[in-house]
Amino acid sequence: MTSASKSGSPFLFKRDVSLASLTTFQVGRGRADYYVQISEAEELIKIVKLARALEIPFRVIAGGSNLVFADTDYHGLLIQFLAKSKNSKKAKISLRNSGSRVSLIVPASLTLMSLVESSLGHGLAGLEALSGIPGTVGGALVGNAGAYGQAISDKLISVQIFDPSTALRTGGGIRKISKQACKFAYRNSIFKTKLAKDYLILSAEFLLEKGNKIELQKKSREIIQTRLKRYPKNLKCPGSFFKNVLVRDVSKKSLQKVDASKIRDGKINTGWLLEKSGALNMRAGAIHVSDWHGNLIINDGGGTAKDVKKLANLLKNKVWKKFGIKLEEEVRYML
Q1: Which of 135, 151, 181, 250 could link 139 by a cystine bridge, Cβ 3.0 to 4.6 Å?
Q2: Is 220 a known active-site residue?
Q3: HSE-up of residue 155 (Cα within 13 Å, Cβ side)
Q4: Is the pTM of this model over 0.70?
């Protein structure tokens, strides 16, 4: 570990860091020249401005729960905006009562589970179905994470972002974006587009309903137990690899091949499509499909991005040949 204090920066950096080690999938042979973990929004802004001033290439990631890093090195600074575990429970969460509803403002670096636990602790409903999903609030917003019919954007009011490009021109760069302006869709948002790919989410505000604390916590525990059956602890995986398929994107001919019981909330269960296509236990190198869920892809250890892409393409082809349905990754390929 090296210090940047000589350049006037209080930050500590790690050199030559494994990219795979920063993700739950633990895939990729590449390494980052420099790495730093940032917990606070103010620190994130400072280090981004520093990197730009020194003309150092940089990328910002969140919790790393749905990323597939490349097998090549990253010659620049990789910034992980993630609250340290010891500070996660003590995050600056602001609550404002408004009748039967409460406004909750949280830092984007907070783990999603800490947000859920905080809302449940205050007897607030609207986020309980997200229980057990890994990653951070910011990362979840970028991908509009969700489960069991609930998405993180459902109760969102607005997000505060930092736009490095605007900061260069005006010296500011911090502004609030409404939920509508975020253009949320199924596992998608404006933050995945070229227009806003450089926006950094600093914090988010949610409006939650007051509910029965005991019932909400019970539901949360049940959801976590259900998730653990699908995603056992310490499994090297990114969660669901492919998105479920929107019915509106499927032809009538292909839809006739799908079991109606596997369609819910306008989406076809991708795990079922894969299983019926013979995906279980398929393998490419150290990467394989589990034997109990078709949309769960696991790294045995030492898996590469090349292995992942090879298996993903094989699976896409299988589903296309059997159903005429195109699959799209929920994971994001990085660098």
Answers
A1: 135
A2: no
A3: 26
A4: yes
What tokens appear for 223 in the block?
A: 């959801």
Which pLDDT band, with edges at 50, 70 and 90, does 197 fall under?
confident
Query: In sequence order, what DSSP letters do the residues of 265-307 get, joined into one string?
Result: TTEE-HHHHHHHTT-TT-EETTEEE-SS-TTBEEE-SS--HHH
Catalytic residue among 114, 119, 240, 277: 240
Percent of the chain with pLDDT over 90: 84
Q: Are strands 67-69 and 332-334 parallel, antiparallel or unpaired?
A: parallel
Please give the average per-residue pLDDT across 310-317, as a whole number.
98
- Give the closest residue to 165 by CA, choosing from 202, 198, 118: 198
Q: Are strands 245-246 and 200-210 parallel, antiparallel or unpaired?
A: unpaired
User: Which token pair is 67?
Assistant: 């990323």
Choice among 65, 153, 187, 205 that is catalytic: 187
Terminal CA-to-CA distance of the chain, rounded, Å? Answer: 23
Active-site annotation holds for 42: no
